[in-house]
Specification:
By secondary structure, the protein is mainly β. The protein is built from no helices and eight strands.
Length: 81
């Protein structure tokens, strides 16, 4: 597990909800979009990956930022670029 450096978003952003698949570091997207406030604490989690319905990894345009204060198995994720 990597060390997570927390930082606020700085402005409102659109995010997607992802759900953890079993006990892995893989997540699938839950349909819908969400709005995050500028004070939401986020961090990079490069060990986590998001996969589509066929099991292929979805790559970010920049990097994925994950909500730091989430209830497992769910997180909100922003593609930061």
């Amino acid at each position: 597990m990597t060390k997570c450096i927390l930082s606020p978003l700085g402005k409102k952003r659109v995010a997607v909800l992802v759900e953890r698949i079993g006990l892995t570091n893989s997540y699938k997207v839950v349909p819908g979009i969400h709005m995050l406030n500028e004070t939401t604490l986020m961090c990079r989690k490069p060990e986590n990956r998001i996969i589509d319905d066929q099991g292929d990894e979805i790559k970010p345009c920049g990097c994925f930022l994950w909500t730091a204060e989430s209830l497992s198995p769910y997180h909100l994720v922003v593609d930061w670029f």
